[in-house]
TrEMBL record:
It holds the Pfam family LRR_6. This is Nuclear receptor domain-containing protein. PANTHER family: ECDYSONE-INDUCED PROTEIN 75B, ISOFORM B, NUCLEAR HORMONE RECEPTOR. Residues 11-87 form the Nuclear receptor domain. Keywords: DNA-binding, Metal-binding, Nucleus, Receptor, Transcription, Transcription regulation, Zinc, Zinc-finger. Transmembrane segments: none annotated. InterPro entries: Leu-rich_rpt, LRR_dom_sf, Nuclear_hormone_rcpt_NR1, Znf_hrmn_rcpt, Znf_NHR/GATA. One of its GO terms (molecular function) is zinc ion binding. It comes from Rotaria sordida.
């Protein structure tokens, strides 16, 4: 008896993709994949789906996934009907409307008019409105400029580019010692641009620059630092000298045209005496005189500085 029942099952052909099919779905004999495809795309597929071949794609069991638009059109052409879908969308709408009626009180005409006349607020406006800080517009602009300068010159973009290039290489060739050392050198050399290209830093007074440098230099890992044309002066040199005693990575310092007088040279000499990393010092275009030169010469005898530049510097 079981054999007789099995023999009566006749496999027919899906009207959409020509694959084997047994049952009729939505008015047409179709296979299960085409049935699911039509259920998912019948209501909105005509507006969303597109064909790159102007609707002339051939649909069969081997390429039915290549063009969803032509596959859907073939479903409609062969008689599949959207009316036979048991869509849950209208039920959800009715349910949501009932929930609104039950949870929200009935609006009167006056309250509805007031709600319509209210202007919609964007999220950014709400954020500004909820801000309770005491900063004014100029201070906010200053913070914005500092943040932008840091994003451009902090070395983050260099690191991201390096990671992207390394990920393209085979696993055995990634993150070799030579490439990692080159990355660190690039980041150290470019870190000075954070100060050099920061207009707000250059607009600070000499005292403010000195305090800022004193607070940050000893906590950084710079190898090269350029403070050219920054009016360091005696106050800045005093803080810089303290930072030189604490840094363990700085090898090159450029103080060209930084208003280094004899007093500033004395402070620098004190800092250089206890520094063990600096090898190059640029003092072009300064006016520290013979007295300042004497202080620096004594400091050079007991530290690691090997190159000093004095061209166009007033000594006598």
């Amino acid at each position: 008896m079981n054999r007789k029942r099995q023999s009566t099952i006749v496999l027919r052909e899906c009207k959409i993709c020509e694959a084997p099919a047994q049952y009729s779905y939505y008015g047409v004999i179709a296979c299960s994949p085409c049935k699911i495809f039509f259920k998912r795309n019948a209501e909105r597929g005509q507006k969303v789906l597109k064909c790159n071949s102007d609707g002339h794609c051939e649909i069969n069991s081997n390429n039915r996934y290549h063009c969803s638009y032509c596959r859907l059109m073939k479903c409609f052409t062969n008689g599949m009907q959207t009316e036979m879908l048991r869509s849950s969308l209208p039920k959800r709408k009715k349910k949501s409307e009932k929930e609104k009626m039950m949870t929200n009180p009935v609006e009167t005409t006056s309250t509805a008019l007031v709600r319509l006349n209210q202007l919609e607020q964007f999220p950014t406006l709400n954020l500004l409105r909820s801000d309770q800080s005491t900063l004014d517009v100029d201070q906010w602009n200053l913070i914005s400029n500092l943040s932008r300068c840091y994003d451009e010159h902090s070395g983050l973009s260099i690191g991201q580019t390096y990671m992207h290039e390394q990920n393209k290489l085979p696993h055995k060739l990634r993150y070799k010692c030579a490439s990692v050392s080159e990355l660190y050198q690039m980041m150290f050399n470019d870190a000075q641009l954070l100060y050099k290209n920061n207009r707000d830093f250059r607009c600070l007074s000499a005292d403010d620059r000195s305090i800022l440098l004193h607070s940050t230099l000893s906590h950084t890992t710079l190898s090269n630092l350029t403070l050219r044309s920054n009016d360091i002066g005696a106050n800045g040199a005093q803080y810089l000298a303290e930072a030189l005693q604490n840094t363990t990575t700085l090898t090159m310092l450029n103080l060209e045209s930084s208003n280094i007088d004899s007093v500033a040279a004395q402070y620098l000499a004190q800092g250089l005496q206890n520094n063990t990393t600096l090898t190059e010092l640029n003092l072009h275009y300064n006016k520290f005189g013979d007295e300042g030169l004497e202080y620096l010469t004594r400091a050079f005898q007991n530290n690691t500085v090997r190159q000093v530049f004095f061209s166009s510097t007033v000594i006598s």
